[in-house]
Amino acid sequence: MASRNIATRLITRTFSSSPKVTQKATRPFQVAIDGPAASGKSTTAKMVAQRLGFDYIDTGAFYRCVTLAALSKGIDPSNQSQASQISNLAQSSHIGLKTVFSTSPSSLPTTRVFLDKKDVSSEIRTGTVSKHVSAVAAIGPVREAVLQKVRDMGATSASQEGNSGRAGLVMDGRDIGTVVLPNADLKIFLVADSRVRAERRLQELAKSGSKEEGLDVETVQKDLERRDELDRTRKASPLRKADDAVELDTSHLTIEGQVDAIVQEVHRRQKAASSSSSSSQ
Ligand SMILES: Nc1ncnc2c1ncn2[C@@H]1O[C@H](COP(=O)(O)OP(=O)(O)O)[C@@H](O)[C@H]1O
Ligand SMILES: Nc1ccn([C@H]2C[C@H](O)[C@@H](COP(=O)(O)OP(=O)(O)O)O2)c(=O)n1
């Protein structure tokens, strides 16, 4: 990113999952982005955050870190008798995110993910972690532990408002609008045709050099659909569109198009909120 534009100023925001902070009375503008796998959530969320000068939290990274921690200890996430061991790991693991924003609006920000201080950004995106992550995310106590860590991180963001000048927060996942940020100022539910999502995911794997030999679009599509089904039908905070969320189908949109649509909606709501607060004074 920096090498493409020498004049580009990098803005780094680091989060830790175990901060000691107090939530401020006034909170930053919150954008919740949910949706099925590979619908474009994290790409869109990061770019929206960059355009608006907001913070960004990728909650899927937390479930991926817990899955990686379990697999590294030889625990099989598909074996239900291992659920309490995985829950203990979810509680004891330290998860950190570091997002590097750029002042060039078209450059994609990058998020580094740390598990117990080790950079696991690539390891958490492997096929093995992706295969098991939905089973891990379905374990109730794992969700409780992650929810606490995510809320702590969100509170850190709120407490830094004013110091960092970042006046808002964008969070993406599966239960952001329904559970994590139920009072978010804007809730987006991103969807896209599963074939389109599979093609995009395959392209992304090929670009990053992590595409496994022989992996084809049908296999990726089936895996995405299997994970969506698990995420939608689990008991603990399943993937669903919040009643007050705006659905955005990205199948025929460009990344810039979907980012523009959300940024414009944030501006519209901020304007409406400030005119209603000034008329009530
Ligand atoms: N409108 C779009 N057109 C083309 N590619 C897209 C679009 N939206 C997202 N992508 C690409 O699709 C892939 C999956 O997006 P990602 O943001 O990782 O999804 P999610 O966070 O929902 O899993 C990424 O490679 C991203 O660049
Ligand atoms: N808030 C969240 C975020 C992710 N999850 C689960 C659901 C997904 O299968 C995994 C991984 O999420 P992630 O967003 O990284 O996955 P994709 O990039 O969409 O494939 O975690 C969740 O249950 N709740």
TrEMBL record:
Domain Cytidylate kinase: 31-267
InterPro entries, sorted: Cytidylate_kin (IPR003136), Cytidylate_kinase_dom (IPR011994), P-loop_NTPase (IPR027417)
Key words, A-Z: ATP-binding, Kinase, Nucleotide-binding, Transferase
Record field: catalytic activity: dCMP + ATP = dCDP + ADP; CMP + ATP = CDP + ADP
High-level lineage: Eukaryota, Fungi, Fungi incertae sedis, Mucoromycota, Mortierellomycotina
Entry GO terms, CC: cytosol
Bias type Basic and acidic residues, positions: 225-244
Superkingdom assignment: Eukaryota
HAMAP family xrefs: Cytidyl_kinase_type1 (MF_00238)
UniProt-recorded name of the protein: (d)CMP kinase
Broadest EC class assigned to this enzyme: transferase
The EC number(s) this enzyme carries: 2.7.4.25
Biological process annotations from GO: nucleobase-containing small molecule interconversion
Location of the region described as Disordered in the Swiss-Prot/TrEMBL record: 225-248
An example Gene Ontology molecular-function term: dCMP kinase activity
Similarity annotation: Belongs to the cytidylate kinase family. Type 1 subfamily.
